[in-house]
Amino acid sequence: MFASGDKVVSGSDDRSVKVWDLKNMRTPITMIRTDSGVNRLSVSQTKNIIAIPHDNRHIRLFDLNGVRIGRVPRTNRMGHHRMVCCTAWNDASTNCNLFSCGFDRQVLGWHVGTTTQ
User: Fold this and answer.
1) Of the four listed, 23, 52, 91, 101, which is most buried by Cβ atoms within 10 Å?
2) Are 57 and 100 in contact (CB under 8 A)?
3) How far, in Å, CA of 12 to CA of 14, rounded?
């Protein structure tokens, strides 16, 4: 997945997500460790947030520097009831800017807000 600028984000079965610079593909800029293999992810082009769907019904959110922003859903009572299989960003929307679908046959819309300091 291409992120903003000259950065590429990749996932792997070795439970890592790596952010690469296109000019220097020898070593990654950032490496994110997860608890399961990552074979699907999505990147917001405007917010520079990586969304990683997991088999445990959660979506983990990271920035391009590898800092964990949070997870969706924040409680276990809402969200998917089975594995999340895909995420997609809609940067043009202000209400729902992250969509997810799962093996529970649901498509859910999420509002992921970022704060600037």
Assistant:
1) 52
2) no
3) 5
Rg value, the chain, Cα:
14
| Peptide bond between residue 73 and the one before it cis (omega within 30 degrees of 0) | yes
Cα within 13 Å of Cα(40), Cβ side: 13
Question: How far is the C-alpha of 107 from the C-alpha of 117, rounded, in Å?
Answer: 32
pLDDT digits (tens, 9 = 90+) for 86-115: 999 998 887 888 999 999 999 998 888 765
Q: How far is CA 44 from CA 49, 93, 105, in A?
A: 5, 12, 24
- Alpha carbons 16 and 4: distance in angstroms, whole number: 20
What tens digit of pLDDT does each residue of 22-67 get? 888 888 999 999 988 888 999 998 888 999 998 888 899 999 999 9
Question: DSSP states of 52-112 as a string?
Answer: EE-TTS-EEEEETTS-EEEEESSSTTSS-SS-EEEEEE-TT-SS--EEEEETTS-EEEE--
